[in-house]
Give the backbone structure.
Amino acid sequence: MSAVVIEKSTTLREGAFGNAKALSCRECGHHVELGPHYACPECFGPLEIAYDFGTVTREQIEAGPRNIWRYKALLPVPDDIETSPNTEPGFTRLLKADNLAAELGIANLWVKDDSTNPTNSFKDRVVACALSAARELGAKVFACPSTGNLANAVAAAGARAGIKTVVFIPRNLEQPKQVNSAVFTESLVAVNGNYDDVNKLASEIAGEEDGWAFVNVNVRPFYAEGSKTLGYEIAEQLGWRLPDQIVIPVASGSQLTKVHKAFQELIRLGLVEDRPYKVFGAQAEGCSPVSVAYKAGVDAIRPVKPDTIAKSLAIGNPADGIYVLDICRQTGGAVEDVTDDQVREGIVLLARTEGIFTETAGGTTIAVLRKLVETGQLDPDLETVAINTGHGLKTLDAISGSVGPAATIDPTYAAFAATGLGG
């Protein structure tokens, strides 16, 4: 049974979680009342949000704001969510990546660029949903364990909402991500250990401290739903249709599973045509427990100790790993991994073909996309979407040794001509 100590001074107001009706166990299907719970009391399986959507139309969605709240009818948030101070993330661009497509030999390629969110990563989406739940549950502290991007998003969202934030990170996290969190909150805590150590500490604190909402612990079911908005936006921006193939980075695995959930919800609601699509997962070789399991043809995820420059993907014991395996196998996709050098190459490739500077997670996705084409696992003739989850300014150290001046010259034309860079 999950330890929950968020205390509500009053009962939940009507419509606090919108069309959400219960928390449902992903393993046994047991239903639990909506609240700060994350483990099934019957089998200890993970909980997720179950809904009664009613009728939702394209016109209703399109009339909404140009952020994730246009999909509020499909999320566990109140109908008046726009009136609560939040960072209003989402509706980021879906870029037609013709230059990258030509480089990789793909006929039709799009990049969903989430680096333009308020704190420059997709985590603003999930945090916005978690913040709504924390507010409705009467939480006093908004907190998280994080590999970086989540800490940035939680600290900023808490500042915007006027709620105390405390964020926990591994001590060796990239410096730009540490600064990006510390500028929003005075309560940044660096922990000696990797992300899994930090996450364990957060779970212990959640069980001991009253009134703390840990976005990816005791309000995780609400938090995770924010990733669905990536799937909704992709479908809407494609003209209300699903892509043939999609490549998604895998850390905990939650993003991939929720994008798939979004596609399935759109199908059930009749908002898109029911057609096959393939889902591919991307990991870095230094932390690839899901890819290893996929290639071995097994269902169990064996935890690993992360050792990769892709720190935002460095979760050695991914909570949703087994569900990633199921989805990728069922849809005819795959889970693949690449080396750190290939991650760096992926960063540079995306930047020099499409003008998008991605962090190491995005470099992993682009490198895996290339590998999937080269190994014949991804059909280059089918429409494909790759997700860029964050901005490269957050992971400068990973790429700084690989790029730099082409030449250092004296301030004369003769010196420039000698470089061979002229027309």
The radius of gyration is 21 Å. Confidence is low (pLDDT under 50) at residues 1-5.
